[in-house]
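Question: what's this shape?

___
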Amino acid sequence: MVQTTKTGVLVMSYGTPTSLENVEAYYTHIRRGHPPTQEQLQELVDRYEAIVGGVFPLRENTDAQVSALQARLDELAPDRYQCFQGLKHAEPYIEDGVEEIKKAGITQAVGIVLAPHYSVMSVGGYIKRAQVKAAELGIKMCFVHSYHLHPKLISALTERVSRLHEELAPHSGDKPVKVLFSAHSLPEKIRELGDPYEQQLLNTSEAIVEAAEIEDWEFTWQSAGRTNEPWLGPDILDTMERVASEGYKAVLSAPIGFVSDHLEVLYDLDIEAKAKAAELGIAFERIEMLNTDPLYMDTLAESVMTVREQLGKE
């Protein structure tokens, strides 16, 4: 095998099924090998079917992000980086991505997750799996743990919030537009672990609020898992009920914990939350997701290159 001086870049994300036929296998992997009940499976399939275009665009979003990051790295540092994809719950799995790095003759790599905020239960889990496989294959690997305050990330999100805030203002009545920042809920036990996830999300929100000069906002949660343990709340649907009862007429949804058009955005917000808003008689819109926004690609590329420099010093 010919070795190369290129640095591998393992781009990790949650993963999504490639078709409706793959939903059961995908859900079984999420449930650690335990197949879902028919009722659970049907509910998830129904959610995918409710999204225009079905499952396929979700996977294409991630593929496009990896390709766009490769293109940006090639512009910034020609022939120095090669991107590989590794998914948590679908093929190519994280371990498969590390295997591909090895097959390419690459001996050092940087891992980055398509999620700006670190939690030991989310990003930490991705990193652990990659670390184990990299050690097994003799690949020197380091990781971007978070990039939640990268100036270009904040700039991209601020522009989206500011533009939508302006559009919603005429619908807000006597009160200002209520901005609801949100992210995927996690079990409450992360607080006992001193996990930085919650604080990082607040820091991102505060940076956007300051830059966009937002006067009325709060942070809420969404997409909690259905387990017996308590999850971080309140849920965005409950928050919307409360703000409507307080007289707000317009809600701006800013799901800053997500970077592309995931099921949690296209269904939980665009379908469920919009239906709730209609029921409450309030205006509701969400910001566009980052997807392959050039500022987001810069955020990822610059974060990778910064960690690569540290790798070279070790």
